[in-house]
Amino acid sequence: MKYMGKGMNNSIKKGVVVAIILLFVSVSVIPSTGNRVSFDDITPPVTTISFDPPEPNGDNGWYVSDVEVTLNASDNMSGVNATYYRINYGEWDTYEVPFVINESNYYVIEYYSVDNEGNVEDVKSASFKVDSVPPVTTAHVSGNDIWLTATDDMSGVNWIEFRIDGGSVQIGNSFTFASEGAHQVDFHSIDIAGNVEPWKSITVTIDYTPPTIEITWEVFGNFICGWQVIFTATCSDATSGMDYVEFYINEGLMFTAVAAPYEYTLEWSSALKSSTLKVVAHDIAGNSANATLNLSEIQSLNSMWLPRLLERFPLLNNLIKLFMERWRI
Length: 329
Hints:
Blueprint lengths: L1 H28 L16 E7 L14 E8 L5 E8 L5 E2 L4 E3 L3 E11 L8 E7 L5 E7 L2 E7 L5 E8 L5 E2 L2 E3 L4 E11 L8 E7 L5 E11 L3 E11 L5 E8 L2 E6 L4 E6 L8 E8 L4 E7 L10 H8 L1 H15 L1
Antiparallel strand pairs: 1-2, 2-5, 3-4, 3-6, 6-7, 8-9, 9-12, 10-11, 10-13, 13-14, 15-16, 16-19, 17-18, 17-20, 20-21
């Protein structure tokens, strides 16, 4: 009996070992059912952002070109399910491939990812600024002076440059010409981001010499209908050219002529004998000259009334000639 008991114990031990082996073999040959193995994943993914160019390629922290934005998400446990982003607080969008920012503006990119266990990453953000448009400069000419104004809707104007007749480049926004004649002015601006406007050019004619002016007059009319005096200002300016001519009576502006012939018609009366006519001629450069005429010089109506009367009435002219001939006899 003692011998039989020992044999049975060994059999039991062998049976246990065989059972364990069969258990492992059976587990190894069970086909996969496709079910996801559940991990204890409580850590959200990690998303990083990068730019191309990697750093601002303009001045003062500005990009001056398109910017490509790339988002990279990783999760060491269950894996990344999706990445989301939005631009300047707009609508959220699903990130799939890098996207390009190609308009000048200030930008805030917000982004985050979610993993396969539903863990949500905290929203991150990155900001940058883009100005790829150069400033716009305009020239204003007034007389012998030039003013330059520049505008830039994004980073702002840094400075304005100009040069006169191909000379050295100067920084400033105004210039007064020293010599008369035609001058070429080149100008442009640079903004704070470093964008350089292409050079522009204008030709400016400088004139420091006032126009010349001469006053003449003619008398028209008769004793019955009255008299009119037509004043003519003969003006010229060889450099910038004539602009306009003003006619004054006793310092009161009576008429402005904007094109040649520069004429003013005055209804004559005896009260005008003590008046003064002043004519002021203005050239395009802003120079002016004036000439005055004392109307007492026209008291005899320029001795024109008798010739014009005889011209108007030929029969009267013939009678006077006949009378003169007989008087001489």
